[in-house]
Amino acid sequence: MPFNSYFISPAAAILTTSIYVHITALALNRFQAVYFTFSYEIIWKKRNIKYIIFIIWCIIIFWYVLLSYITLNFKNLSNWIS
Fold first, then answer.
1. pLDDT tens digits, residue range 6-63?
2. Contacts (Cβ under 8 Å, ≥6 apart) of 49
3. Residue 60, exposed/middle/buried by CB under 10 A (0-12, 13-18, 19+)?
4. Burial of 56 by CB count in 10 Å (0-12 exposed, 13-18 middle, 19+ buried)?
5. Average pLDDT over residues 59-82
6. Distance, C-alpha 18 to centroid of its chain
7. What is Dmax (Cα atoms) for the chain?
8. What one-character-per-residue DSSP string does 14-45 give?
9. I need a labelling partner for 37 at 20 to 30 A (CA). Which of 3, 58, 73, 81 fits?
């Protein structure tokens, strides 16, 4: 049971969130390609895409660490109050 709660569940949450965020980024890419054709190549260069993907992963990991920290502190607080 601890293996699931410490490794599998966080990994599944991070990967699920990353899927949704990457699909959203892809949708924004396609939207800009269709509606803003002339400025598309300025933003979506190969070098910029690497930075965008890196920033997406940093935000996802930071968000999950923050949520885990809040959840753990709330559980500790509720144990302390009881």
1. 777 778 888 888 899 989 999 999 999 999 988 888 888 889 999 989 999 999 989 8
2. none
3. buried
4. middle
5. 75
6. 5
7. 61
8. HHHHHHHHHHHHHHHHHHHHHH-HHHHHHH--
9. 58
Q: Which of 64, 52, 58 is nearest to 16 (CA)?
A: 64
- Whether 38 and 72 have beta carbons less than 8 Å apart is answered as no
Question: What are the residue ranges spanned by the domains of the chain?
Answer: 2-81
**How many CA atoms, within 13 angstroms, populate the side-chain half-sphere of residue 40?**
12
Name 73's Cβ contacts closer than 8 Å, sequence gap at least 6: none
What are the tokens at 14? 């991070």
Answer whether 52's CB lies under 8 Å from 28's CB: no
Please tell me the predicted confidence (pLDDT) of residue 82. 55
